[in-house]
Design a protein that fits this description.
The structure holds 2 protein chains of 2 kinds. By secondary structure, chain A is an alpha+beta fold. Chain A has helices at 3-12, 18-30, 32-50, 60-68, 75-84, 93-110, and strands at residues 136-143, 150-154, 164-165, 167-168, 173-180, 183-191, 194-196, 203-206, 212-218, 228-229. Chain B has helices spanning 2-29, 31-45, 50-65, 71-82, 87-111, 116-123, 126-136, 141-151, 160-175, 180-192, 197-209, 211-216, 218-229, 234-243. The chains are: A alpha+beta, B mainly alpha.
Chain lengths: 230, 251
C-alpha cells in the first residue's frame, strides 16, 4: 500500500489529525486521480452499508468456544509437562533448614530411632531368644562345702568371665535361681576360679577345648516362678 | 542466580549428610556385625592379636554367607575367650562346627520331603542346630540316613525336626554305650509312634545315664523297646525307669 493510499484510508476512517486532514484536502484538490479513487471507495462503502446485516445463529458462539478450548489432558501428560518444564526455585534459609529437619526426622522415624552406639556390655548379653516366650525360673545347685566362691557362666550370660555368683547355704550347698527363656544352654561353674562341670546336670557335651559343658534344656510349659532344677 | 547456587549447596550438604549417616546406620542396624566388632575389641583387651580375632569373626561371617545359624558360633567364641583358650584353637573349633552345620544342611536337604516340611526346613534353624549337635556327638551321615529311613517306614513323611531329634536321640544313646542299631531303632520307633522330641530326649538321656546297666542287662533294654513299640506313654516309661534303682551303681 502506497503512502497516498494509506492517507486515503485514514481519511475515510477519519483517522487524520486536523493538520494532516487539511494537507490531504489540498492534495485532493490538486490530484484528480486521487479524487476519483476517493469517490470510488466512498461508493463502495455506501454499497456495503446497504447490504443486509447477518446475525449468527444462537449456537454459533458455543461452537466457537468449544473449538478454541484446549483438549483435556491426562494425569501423566500433565505430570510429564510439570516434570520437564523449567521451574524457578524460590527458597530462603529458614525454609531450607526446616526442610532438612523434616527429612532428618523422617529418616530417624523410619530407622526406628537413632541406633545406639556399640558398648562393651552388649556382647555379653545372651541374644536370640524370643522376648515373648515365657520366663522359666531355673534353680541351680552345687554341693561344695569347701569352696570360697562359686559362680556360673554360660550361653545365658554370654559367657561372662565374672559369671553370676551362687549363694552359699547351710551344709555347703551353693544355689542360684535364674530366669531363663526356653531354649538350650551350655554352662559351667567356676569354683574358686577353676572351671567345674555341673555334676548334677541332665546332659553334658564336650566343649571342644578338652572339658565338658553341662547342658540345660529349658522348656516351655512350666509356670513362671516354678523353679526347674538345673 | 545467587539463590540457585545456594540451593545447590544445601542439596549437596543434605546428600553428604545422608551418605555419611548411611554406613553408620547400616552397620549399626546389623546386630551380628556390631557384636563381632565388640568381640574383637574385647579380645584385644584380653591381649589377643586383632588379626587373630578377625579370623574368628571371619568364620562367623563365612557361616552367615553360607546361610548357617551363627548364634552358637558367637557363643563358642565368647566361651573360648572366657576360658582363656588360645585364639587358633577357638578358630579350629569354629571350623569344625561350621563343617558339621554344612553337613547337617546337606543331609536335611537330601532327606527333606517336598511341600510344607520343605518350607519348614527353609525357615527354621532348629533342625539344623540339633542335627549338627548329633553329628558332633558322633552320629555318622549314614546313620542319619538310616534314622530317616526308619522313621519314614510305612510312607511316614519325615519332618526335619523329627529327623534331627531322632539323630540326636541316637547320639545320646550311643554315648551311653548302647548298640548303634538298637539306639537308631528305638529313636525312630518312638518318633514314628508320635513321641514328642523333648520326651525322646528325656528317654535318651536316661538310657545314656544308665548305659552300663543296659549293657549288662540287655533284656531291660528290650523291655523298653517293646514298651515304645506298643505305644506306651513316654512319661510313664521314663518314670518307671527312674523309679527302678540302677543295679550297676552302688546304693
Amino acid at each position: 500500500m502506497s503512502d497516498r493510499e494509506r492517507l486515503l484510508h485514514r481519511f475515510i476512517d477519519q483517522d487524520l489529525s486536523p493538520e494532516e486532514r487539511l494537507a490531504f484536502l489540498e492534495t485532493l484538490n490538486r490530484d484528480s486521480a486521487l479524487r476519483e479513487r476517493l469517490i470510488d471507495m466512498e461508493r463502495m462503502l455506501a454499497g456495503t452499508a446497504e447490504l443486509p446485516r447477518l446475525t449468527p445463529p444462537a449456537e454459533f458462539a458455543a461452537q466457537v468456544v468449544a473449538r478454541i478450548q484446549p483438549p483435556t489432558r491426562g494425569f501423566w501428560e500433565r505430570a510429564h509437562e510439570w516434570l520437564t518444564a523449567p521451574h524457578a526455585l524460590q527458597w530462603n534459609p529458614a525454609g531450607a533448614l526446616a526442610t532438612a529437619c523434616i527429612l532428618l526426622a523422617l529418616a530417624w522415624l523410619l530407622n526406628g530411632g537413632l541406633p545406639k552406639p556399640p558398648s562393651g556390655g552388649s556382647a555379653l548379653q545372651t541374644a536370640g531368644h524370643s522376648h515373648t516366650a515365657p520366663t522359666v525360673y531355673v534353680r541351680l545347685a552345687l554341693m561344695n562345702p569347701t569352696a570360697e566362691s562359686v559362680t556360673i557362666t554360660g550361653d545365658f550370660n554370654g559367657w561372662n568371665p565374672h559369671g553370676m555368683p551362687l549363694v552359699k547355704t547351710a551344709n555347703g550347698l551353693w544355689t542360684l535361681t535364674i530366669p531363663l527363656k526356653p531354649g538350650r544352654y551350655e554352662y559351667m561353674y567356676r569354683v574358686d576360679g577353676k572351671w567345674v562341670t555341673d555334676p548334677l546336670a541332665s546332659d553334658f557335651i564336650p566343649d571342644g577345648f578338652g572339658q565338658e559343658n553341662a547342658v540345660l534344656d529349658v522348656r516351655e510349659g512350666l509356670h513362671d516362678g516354678a523353679p526347674q532344677e538345673g | 542466580m545467587e539463590g540457585s547456587k545456594t540451593a545447590r549447596w544445601v542439596i549437596a550438604m543434605l546428600a553428604l549428610a545422608s551418605l555419611t549417616l548411611s554406613p553408620w546406620q547400616a552397620a549399626a542396624a546389623d546386630p551380628l556385625d556390631q557384636e563381632l566388632v565388640t568381640l574383637v575389641h574385647l579380645g584385644e583387651l584380653q591381649g589377643r592379636a586383632a588379626e587373630e580375632m578377625k579370623r574368628l569373626t571371619d568364620q562367623v561371617q563365612r557361616a552367615q554367607s553360607l546361610g548357617l545359624p551363627t548364634e552358637s558360633l558367637v557363643d563358642k567364641i565368647k566361651e573360648g575367650m572366657a576360658k582363656g583358650i588360645e585364639t587358633p584353637r577357638i578358630e579350629q573349633r569354629l571350623i569344625l562346627m561350621i563343617n558339621h552345620m554344612k553337613l547337617a544342611k546337606t543331609l536335611l536337604k537330601a532327606t527333606g520331603p517336598s511341600g510344607k516340611n520343605q518350607a519348614a526346613l527353609g525357615g527354621k534353624d532348629r533342625a539344623l542346630a540339633v542335627l549338627s549337635e548329633a553329628l558332633e556327638r558322633g552320629v555318622t551321615p549314614d546313620e542319619v540316613r538310616s534314622v530317616h529311613r526308619d522313621i519314614g517306614e510305612g510312607n511316614h513323611e519325615v519332618h526335619p525336626d523329627a529327623l534331627a531329634y531322632g539323630a540326636k536321640g541316637m547320639a545320646l544313646m550311643k554315648e551311653g554305650g548302647l548298640p548303634p542299631d538298637v539306639s537308631r531303632a528305638l529313636a525312630a520307633t518312638a518318633l514314628r509312634k508320635g513321641v514328642e522330641p523333648t520326651n525322646l530326649m528325656d528317654l535318651a538321656r536316661e538310657l545314656k545315664g544308665r548305659g552300663p546297666e543296659f549293657r549288662e542287662h540287655p533284656a531291660k533294654l528290650r523291655d523298653i523297646q517293646n514298651a515304645v513299640e506298643r505305644g506306651h506313654r513316654m512319661e510313664k516309661i521314663i518314670s518307671d525307669l527312674r523309679s527302678r534303682p540302677d543295679t550297676t551303681k552302688p546304693q
